[in-house]
Structure formats: C-alpha cells, structure tokens
Specification:
The chain is 12% helix and 19% strand. The chain has 4 helices and 14 strands. The strands form 5 sheets. A 4-stranded mixed beta sheet has the order 12-11-10-13, with helices on one face. A hairpin with a 3-residue loop joins strand 8 and strand 9. The termini are far apart. The relative contact order is 0.22.
Length: 298
Amino acid sequence: MVPTAEQPVFDCRIATRPILRRIEACTFMMGSHDPLAHPLDGEGPVRAIELDAFEISATAVTFGEFARFASETAYVTEAERIGWSAVFDGFVDANEDDAPRLVSAPWWRRVEGACWRAPEGPRSGIADRIDHPAVHVSHNDALAYCSWAGVRLPSEAEWECAARGGLTQQRYPWGDDLEPDGVHRCNVWQGEFPSTNTAEDGYVGTAPVDAYEPNAFGLFNMVGNTWEWCADRFDTSYHARATFQNPRGPPNGNARAIRGGSYLCHVSYCARYRVSARSSATPDTATGHLGFRVARSV
C-alpha cells in the first residue's frame, strides 16, 4: 500500500510500555548446523548455554510505544538527524521515484525524510499502524529508548533462548515446518524476490506485533516481520570460543547483532527467519525492516 499525503493523527500518550515475559534460568542448545544457514554467519557450533533468569518483551516495541518515548523526551532519532533512511523499493512513493538505490542492495532506496514517523518518506505516517513494530530505529536509538524505559536490549543468547520457546534444535519458534498444516506462522516474503510478493501470509510490509500465534513462552513474531537489535557486538567466530554462561558477545567490534529476519526474507537468498539465524548492522543503521524488543535482568 502506498501511503497518502493526508494521514490521521493519534495521541501517543495512550500508548503503553512493553509487556515483559519471564524466562526462567535454564540451559539450552544454541546455534545450529542448518543447511539453510549462510556459511559466513557463524551460527555454529551447537553448544549448551547456561542463562540466568531474565525478562523479555512479548512483542517488538511498537510505533505507539516509541512515539510515547519520543514525545516525553523530545528524542530525535539518527535517521531524523541525518535526514534520510533506507526504504524498500516497492514502498517508495511515486513522488520519491528519483530516490537513489543503494549500490550493495538495489531494492533499497535512500529516501529523504524517511524515519520512524514517516516510514516510506514525507508523505507517509504511522497513525494507522501504531501496533506495528517501530522501524527506522538505529541501535543507538534503541539504547536511548531502553534507558528511558528502564530496560535493555537482549543478548543474542537470551534472544535465541526466548525465540526457541523451550524447543530443542527446532528451526522455528513452533517447530521445523515453516507452514504447519498450511498455516502461516510468520510474516516473510512469498513469491519472487524482489519483484513479486504474493502476500499469502496476509501482509506485504510489516504486520502488527501480535499478528500470529505466540510461541510457548508467550512471545510474538520472534521470526519474520522485522529484524531485531541485540546488545552484542557481532563476530562470526565468537560463539565458537565464547563462555557457556551468560555470553554477552565479543568485547570489540563495531557491528551489532540482529536477529529474526524480516518481511523481506525469502528462501531464495536469505533464509534468516529461523531462531538460530543471525546477521549484523552498524549501530547507526536505520531501515524500514529493522526494529527491536527489550529485556530486563531479574
């Protein structure tokens, strides 16, 4: 759907803060040797990880929740300060058709004025999707939100443990079948990427944060919909040598880990909508398919 110039407004004061679910202290099997894994992502080896109890939000942080934070703090995101953000080509308004493509990924456009308030550019808005995940939020922006809300970003290990929902070495939060009994359980690309999305799962872009069945821990959309920032710095070999108790990522490095895949993931090039899949982005990155959920130590 191409947004129109006239956008309804909403009162961000009614937005709540994220609901947190408790995950008890546990040992789980992290990583995979999945044949769908990219060999350079560093998903393996499979190893037993011990975690202390923690809490994690049932959903990704929504536009409504982020709007409340921005309103109460007058926070300006990095995309707003820079003046542009990356928008998927299929969502670019005709008035922005001259927006340059990113060389490394030509299905992305550099759209002036795109930010969390205007996800597809100046003619778009969020009033009709306040229950969708907040996107165009950098790692630094997510940390600012966490500081305000009294929470933090989850570690990669916490994120994966939570996403697995108590299952052991299953590919998705519900099992090994992407569409059990023909039912869509997440929001990913169907069709031919990047030209045709048949939207068989019900959505072309983002979906509401609770659009599908939760996993056994009561967590929604742990895969698909939007990538989610984690606290860890990213290293493709770190987990092969890391501590097995409450790992927190390598001490050095610029890129940060992201998890879960997004509505743009397709098996033909990116099967990262799996609980063990991982990728990375620099902490100032903001795009239309990258958001976050929050955690808290207990």
